[in-house]
Hints:
single chain; 436 residues; mainly alpha; two-stranded antiparallel sheet; 19 helices; globular; Azg-like; cell membrane
Amino acid sequence: MDFLNRVFHLDEANTTVKRELIAALTTFVSLSYILFVNPNILHAAGIPAGAAFTVTAIATAIGCFIMGLVANYPIALAPTLGSGAFFAYNVCVGMKISWQTALAGVLVASILFVLITALHLRELVVDAIPQDLKYAISAGIGLFIAFIGLQNGKLIVNSSSSLVTLGKFSSPAVWITLFGLILTVVLMAMGVPGSIFIGMIVTAIFGICIGEIPLPHSFISTPPSIAPTFGQAVFHITDINTPQLFMVVLTFLLVTFFDTAGTLIGMTQQAGMVDKDGKIPRIGRAFAADSTAMIEGAVLGTAPLGTSVESSAGIAMGGRTGLTAIFVGILFLISMIFSPLLAVIPTTVTAPALIIVGVLMASNLKRIDWEKFEIAFPAFLTVVGMPLTYSISDGLALGMIAYPITMIASKRYKEVSVTMYVLFIIFVIFFLVTNL
Length: 436
């Protein structure tokens, strides 16, 4: 215990090994769906599903180890679904680019990412973002997470007339979600430690009892080989030789940069790591960790890794140091042989956790200076932009573009840093590149 305390500074963070383990279990259970969703997405690009499953587990574990040891943050790194969907459906299916070449594009973007991080450009950007917008980013991610939870639990479904609508109460998935949500809300209101994790476990048991969640056919299985994907990004790096592929690399870089920056700000804000001056300690190390993780993920054979929003579930359970991330990585390695057991944790079970975590993160709305319109408008765009565009980076971009405009209009332009004006231009270009 003394060794762990020295390495992860548990006493300084006012946490314990037990609390970090509970936080890790909560993050893992919330994030475990990535073991099945990411391979399905990558399989659409042509990557063997078995190899993609093992690669997802290994890449996530290594990413968590890097984040935990380098930055000492309670944040998991995993393949992001937004980047994965772009990789599979836009690049491979839409542009008809082979998955090997697409992986090479991810590797090139990752190398550029490391260079940008080494020059401290990412750190400069984060420090330049006003405190009110940082609160808005955190709250916006909270609404985004809650929206994902509502969708995963089938409480909110697609509608041809109004885009979204209330789910049907005749659906068993809705009842599983409602059971878990009510149970967890009661446990939270009673102040029961580990309430989110307890809620998920009991909800899974409830789903099994009513016959909607099948019992696993076996307990362990041999992890599929990663031979089909390992090193393909390196072998095909010379394929990046056309304007179209350079644009693919640029898009990977932009989307991952802003997704990760926004999520990291939100997670550290939630964990109470931001100091009174709005600075985030060790943010440079955190950026170095996630950019390095992108490289190892590309070499192994998966779409870009990034900061996982599901880490907020573990943070809500008290995770405050890198030991949480280390435990999450270990759990992902273990999951490779116990993968049949993960089938009892579908998205309907994790949905209540995401909804409640969204509520907790939305509390940062009270910290925003709503009395000043020049602050309120860009903050509002950031908050609603994330769930409505279904993208952290798009919501972040909306706020970053609006902020200099409103500050100039209110004659407070001198309070806007040069970096924020540069960001304004970059985000406009970002929208032009990704949405034309």
